[in-house]
Structures are given as structure tokens and as C-alpha cells.
Design goal:
The protein has 77 residues and is of the alpha+beta class. The strands form 2 sheets. The chain has a 3-stranded antiparallel beta sheet. The longest helix is centred in the middle third of the chain and has 15 residues. The two termini are 27 Å apart.
């Protein structure tokens, strides 16, 4: 399980906090995806929820008062 979420701010503040929730399997998946970048096998990776055609990210938030991210793209520069 991997869940990437924007934490809802207090009223009057902007969204500026990201939280990532992982279980052991999710951590292994996340590290495996990052190793593609580390080994220069690709210049970017995509993690998406099932609603977006993926299988890595959760569709619903796990944190309190947060918004799920349904597509995460990580780019190596």
C-alpha cells in the first residue's frame, strides 16, 4: 500500500504539505520504482491509483483531513 496525500490546511492557508503512507509491501514497491531511476533505466516513473489505470496508489486517503493524489510522477534530472 502506498498513499500520497495533500493535507488539507487550516482555513486561510494554502495546500503545502504532502504525506506519504506506506506498508512494508508499499515500501518495497516504492524502492523498486526508485531503483529504475537510480540505475538510469528510465528518466521518470509513474505511480497511479486503480481509478487512473495503475495499481500502486490508494484511491482513498488514509490520513485525516487529506486529499489523495491519484498520479505521482517522479522525474530524474
Amino acid at each position: 500500500m502506498i498513499s500520497v496525500e495533500l493535507k488539507r490546511p487550516d482555513p486561510g492557508l494554502e495546500l503545502d504539505e504532502v504525506e506519504i503512507y506506506l506498508d512494508q509491501k508499499g515500501l518495497e514497491t516504492f524502492l523498486a520504482q526508485l531503483s529504475f531511476l537510480k540505475d538510469c533505466e528510465t528518466e521518470h516513473i509513474h505511480l497511479m491509483c486503480e481509478l487512473w489505470g495503475g495499481s500502486h496508489l490508494e484511491n482513498h486517503p488514509l490520513g485525516t483531513n487529506s486529499i489523495p493524489i491519484r498520479h505521482l510522477k517522479i522525474v530524474l534530472r
